[in-house]
Structure formats: C-alpha cells, structure tokens
Recover the amino acids of this structure.
C-alpha cells in the first residue's frame, strides 16, 4: 500500500513537470509564431512602401519639428501625389524647379508610412503601450507600438512589435579600401592611388566619435554587426554606435526619379556605342542625350551633351601623366558654317553643338578681356599740324590646362566682342590755344564695311553699323605647351596696327599678325591699335592727313547723334 502511494505521488509529480514543460513549449511556440507574423508584416510593409522604384527612405531626423523617435524609418514618394514628377524644367526661370520648395512642403505631411508596428508619430512622446526595441546605456533609443495578437476566452494570446532600420544612412565599416596601401601621387596616376582622392573608397572609422583604431585585417571578419565587438573598436563603442554603422548593406540600382533600373554605363563603355533594350530595361546609345528631357524638340535634346561624349572620354587612350600630350579637338561641323562662310571672319569649322560625340583635350578659356583706350598722335607736322585718333586695345586671354599631363595645344584664333558702337566726346585744343568739345560716332570691328551714305543718318541705318558682329576683334594664340594644371596669360606680343577687315583697310588681312604671347608680360607699350585714317580736314580738300586740332581728353557719353538720330 505504501509502495502504491509512493508511485502515485511520483507519477503526479512527473505529470506536473510534463504539464509545466508543455505549457512553456506552448508559450514558446506562440511567441515564435507571433515573431514570424511580425516579420512577415514588416517585410510586407517594406515591400508595399518601398517596393516601387519611385520611393525613397530616410529617418525621422529630417523632420523640422524634431523627433522623439529619430531612428524611425519613413517612406516618401519621389513624385507628386498624382504621379507627376517633383522636378520640372523651366529654362526661363532657373532650369530645374522643385515643386516641394515652391509649396514649402513639410516632410512630415508627405510621409507614406513609418516602418514600425502599429501606428504612431515619431515626434510624439512614446505611449504607454510601446515596446523598447533597442537600448544604449540602459536608455531606450528605439520604441515601437505594441500590437495585440488575437483574443480568446482566456485572454490575449500574445503581442508583437517591430521596427525597420535604415541601413542607407549608416557607414558600412566592412568595406575595405583596395588601394589603402597606394599613396595618391599625381606623378603616377595610373597606379590607382588617385582614386582615393577622387571618391570615397571606404568609410573612415577614424572620423567617427571615439576614433577607434580598426585594422584592415579585421574587416573580413565582420560577418555581422555583433562581430564589431570582437575588433579593436570594442564592445562599449560598438553598442554605443550601433545605429551609426553596419557591416552589410545592399541596394537596387533603381532610378528613383523616373522609375525602372538605372542604365549600366560599365557595359555601355565596353560596347561599340549601343546597348539594346532588354525587356523593361532601357538601352543606351552614343546619340542619347545625357540631360533627359520629355520633349524631343527641346533645346536640351537638340544641343545637350551625348553619352557618346562620355564614352569617348572614358575610352580615351590619352595618358594621364607625362609630357608631349597632343591636344584634341571635339567634333567639328562645317555644314553649320554654310550660312556665314561667304562672310568675312567666318569660322568655317565650328564645334558641333548638336550631337557632339568626341571629347576634346585642350586648354580651357578662363578669361578673355579687351581693355580699350583712345589716344591722339601727330600724323603730319608743319605750320598746320594734323592729328589722328587711335583706338588702343590691350587684350588679355588666360588659358588653363586642367589635366594632369603636359598638354601641347594647337594654334588658336580667339574672338573678343565688346561694344562696337560707341558715342564719344573729346575736349580739343587748336594751335591758337582755343578749347572746344567735339562729338564722335565711333564704330569698328564688324564683318561688313557697307556703311551706306547720306550722312550720319545713313551710317547709323546701314547694314555695317547694325552688324551683330560689330565690336569683334580677332587675336592669334600660337601653339603652346602647358604644364599640368598651369594657367598662362597671353597679352600683345608687340605694338602694331590691328590687322583685320575694316572700312579703314578694306583689303586682305591676316589675323595671325595680331599675335598674343605668354612669354612677355603685359605692358602699356604693347598693344594693337586702330588708326582712324579716314578723318580729313574739311578745310583742306587736297590733303588727307587728319584733323587740324588735337583732342586731349576723351569720355564716352550720349552725343547729339543719339539725341537727334542724325
């Protein structure tokens, strides 16, 4: 009897243990099921809000009003609510226009959804039914609303909460710099060292708070974020900055502005100039405009740079170091010069603007200015002195070699256009000492010398006076060798009469005579001038030596020609 009682008590104890074990296992299964449900809902929310291409994410830190939950991730559209683009082209008032700026849009009102369980506002204090998902120094830094899972007669069967963090705003410390041992030296650009100063190759952990010393040899061991605790950074730093770094981050090369995948420039650069369309992935060709525009007739489509220009540059065999690198012109378009080819001073080989696919290698024009001054010179001495007026020109041209190689440029002709129609007054003196003021109509530097007739009114209404190229002067720059990064200043190489097409000299001209040099410094004694040899003394029709009075002061001002129009 005693034995039976002991056996019964033992069996009851065993049954109680099994019952408690079964209860724990049931609770564990419910917890796992709830966690699986939370994960499925989090993934579903992620696919729904950020699955479309035209979506972006950011943390609540961008909110103007400040966030109590700054690490919550929000999803936004990259289009307006009706699907129209946020950006529009308006060349007359600034190019690309951002509708969000014009409407003073608040990101808080445009968010699609916050990627957390339940509903909540990151700017509000945590509610009583929230769950702390991450703590730092025993302080909760990420809270999420708690969601109940079903109810039975015995009560709630469980709860869950989730939060989806944004790895896009964190530094990926597991990415190693493959060129960390190569110094950035402009003298040896082909070894890859300069890539380190052109673009970031890896996140620099030494720039983060605490400046932990992370050895490159430890980077391959970072299989997870928790593995950071095993490195020189240590456990304390890793936990404190858990929201600042990651060891894994992937992305889709989606075009968030237009939708679809981004086009692959790598395969395009290696192609013969055309990558065909593939299913819903748009291809790319040399003739495609880099500046996308919906309107095929827009000036961006007509004159914008082409991808062929970029491919040509990427495939260029020009060395990025060394000497004696020959300059290279872009595509030229002789057909574009047909209209003006018969005129004087025409550029018969202008650069091709529409569809240029050849990258040039030449110095860049930094400055082109032309300082002008007026002077008087004695043209004929004698009892009656005859004077003439000269327009002095001091052109200054600055060319810059932006490349890290010694560049040999070709011979250039540069045109500088200023105000070619000027009204001027002079204060003059005669041999008897009398002083008076004279009005002048000064015009020079066009491509036409047909100034008509009929006095001043005929001149001002003539084809030449109204030539749009009036005030244009042409100067010659010789073939020059530029050191890497060098700027050279070109100024007149001599003092000489300007050699160009003019009513004063309607004969053959040679623009190469208007030589600018970088080997002599600018000097007031060196300039190119235009002598007004058509001025005659009206009282002496047998002579053509100039004027019998001497202008000694000049200034520009409206004259009676402008006031009266004749």
């Amino acid at each position: 009897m005693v034995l039976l009682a002991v056996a019964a008590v033992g069996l009851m104890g065993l049954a109680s243990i099994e019952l408690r074990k079964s209860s724990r296992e049931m609770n564990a299964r419910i917890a796992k099921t709830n966690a699986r449900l939370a994960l499925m809902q989090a993934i579903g929310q992620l696919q729904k809000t950020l699955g479309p291409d035209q979506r972006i994410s950011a943390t609540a830190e961008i909110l103007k009003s400040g966030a109590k939950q700054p690490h919550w991730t929000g999803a936004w559209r990259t289009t307006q609510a009706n699907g129209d683009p946020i950006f529009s082209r308006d060349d007359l008032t600034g190019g690309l226009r951002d509708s969000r700026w014009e409407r003073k849009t608040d990101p808080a009102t445009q968010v699609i959804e916050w990627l957390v369980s339940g509903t909540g506002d990151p700017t509000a204090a945590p509610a009583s039914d929230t769950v702390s998902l991450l703590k730092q120094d025993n302080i909760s830094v990420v809270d999420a609303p708690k969601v109940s899972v079903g109810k039975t007669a015995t009560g709630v069967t469980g709860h869950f909460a989730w939060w989806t963090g944004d790895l896009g705003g964190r530094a990926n410390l597991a990415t190693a710099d493959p060129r960390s041992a190569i110094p950035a030296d402009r003298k040896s650009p082909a070894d890859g060292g300069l890539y380190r100063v052109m673009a970031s190759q890896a996140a620099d952990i030494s720039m983060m708070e605490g400046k932990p010393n992370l050895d490159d040899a430890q980077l391959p061991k970072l299989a997870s974020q928790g593995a950071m605790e095993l490195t020189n950074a240590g456990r304390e730093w890793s936990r404190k900055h858990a929201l600042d770094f990651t060891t894994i981050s992937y992305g889709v090369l989606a075009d968030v502005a237009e939708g679809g995948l981004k086009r692959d420039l790598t395969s395009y650069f290696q192609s013969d100039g055309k990558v065909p369309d593939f299913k819903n992935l748009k291809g790319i060709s040399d003739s495609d405009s880099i500046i996308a525009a919906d309107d095929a007739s827009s000036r961006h489509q007509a004159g914008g740079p082409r991808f062929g220009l970029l491919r040509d540059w990427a495939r260029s065999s020009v060395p990025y170091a060394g000497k004696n690198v020959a300059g290279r012109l872009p595509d030229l378009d002789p057909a574009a010069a047909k209209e003006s080819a018969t005129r004087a001073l025409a550029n018969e080989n202008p650069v091709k603007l529409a569809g240029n696919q050849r990258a040039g290698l030449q110095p860049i024009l930094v400055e082109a200015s032309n300082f002008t001054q007026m002077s008087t010179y004695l043209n004929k001495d004698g009892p009656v002195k005859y004077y003439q007026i000269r327009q002095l020109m001091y052109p200054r041209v600055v060319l810059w070699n932006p490349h890290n190689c010694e560049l040999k440029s070709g011979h250039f002709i540069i045109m500088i256009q200023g105000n070619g129609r000027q009204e001027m007054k002079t204060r003059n003196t005669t041999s008897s000492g009398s002083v008076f003021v004279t009005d002048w109509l000064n015009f020079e530097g066009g491509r036409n010398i047909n100034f008509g007739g009929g006095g001043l009114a005929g001149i001002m209404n003539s084809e030449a006076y109204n030539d749009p190229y009036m005030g244009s002067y042409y100067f010659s720059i010789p073939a020059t060798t530029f050191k890497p990064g060098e700027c050279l200043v070109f100024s007149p190489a001599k003092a000489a009469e300007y050699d160009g097409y003019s009513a004063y000299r309607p004969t053959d001209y040679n623009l190469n005579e208007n030589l600018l040099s970088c080997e002599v410094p600018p000097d007031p004694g060196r300039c190119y001038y235009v002598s007004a040899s058509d001025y005659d003394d009206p009282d002496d029709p047998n002579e053509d030596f100039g004027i019998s009075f001497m202008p000694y002061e000049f200034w520009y001002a409206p004259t009676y020609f402008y006031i009266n129009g004749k």
